[in-house]
Amino acid sequence: MGRQPCCDKLGVKKGPWTADEDKKLVNFIITHGHCCWRSVPKLAGLRRCGKSCRLRWTNYLRPDLKRGLLNDDEEQLVIDLHARLGNRWSKIAARLPGRTDNEIKNHWNTHIKKKLTKMGIDPVTHEPLHKPDTPYEPSDGAAINDHHSKDCGNVSSTATELSPLTEKFSTDESRSSSESGNEEDPLMNVIWSEVFLNDLSWNFTVPDSREEYGELDTLSWSLDNRNILDDHQSFGFGGFNEIDFNSLDINTTIKSSLP
DNA sequence: AACAACATCAACCGCATCCTT
DNA sequence: AAAGGATGCGGTTGATGTTGT
Fold it and tell me: What is the mean pLDDT of chain A?
């Protein structure tokens, strides 16, 4: 069936997002949510296609994103899940709170693939590479396959079972950000700060996700905006369990993050 | 200092899948 | 059941940054 392009190609901007565009998008989404991505750019005053807006939001602007490289545990988990799920990056990402499929995919292609190959493991099949005369040289990441080789030797048979590590990550969503090199993005601080300072009625706290959201753990949130929480899954706000609308402290939180 | 080679990652593209009519 | 639209997903690309010569 012939499909129309996702957006009108004429006049649609492409390429890197500017801080101003980011601000507009964040502003719009936190205020209105997104009824449908196709209409978001028009309503937000952006010359972008809806797809691009969705990608920018899910991969970069979402407040629950972790930043920085995957730590060893996360990397191990990705390897573990990849052995079971293959290149289903979104499924893998779903097990790593605060990580995106794109980020994991990139990390896999740039780091993990090489690491596994170096260790004598086929990154596709997760089987040892057959080089009988090439002695296996454990590297700094050798631990990866202590459990992995046992656990993932048979990819399909264990597909529904999760290793203890996998279970740990899939359930423990309140891990400390400090262990993952959760670097802050100054640009993001500015964007979010400006967004919230523009609307001082915002005010909420995220009691269960404090560490993950860092400086964004306390935000101001008007009751009028509460409706977007109904759609929080769409935003990837998985950590927003309960919002305490009575605890508002935007000044100390937001202003302290300003450069 | 200048250039090349390599690494990283944000963003795009096209197809798949889901949902509505 | 079929058609068409919206969104999601995975592969790929290209710009930018980093490292080596």
Answer: 64
List the structure tokens of A144: 């990866």
Contact A53, A44 (CB under 8 A): yes
**Separation of A100 CA and C5 C1' (Å):** 26
* Residue–nucleotide distance: A35 CA to B20 C1' (Å): 15
Per-residue model confidence as pLDDT tens digits over A119-163? 888 888 888 876 555 444 444 433 334 334 333 333 333 434 455
Q: Is the C-beta atom of A51 closer than 7 angstroms to strand C?
A: yes
Q: Given a cut of 70, is residue A118 above it in pLDDT? A: yes
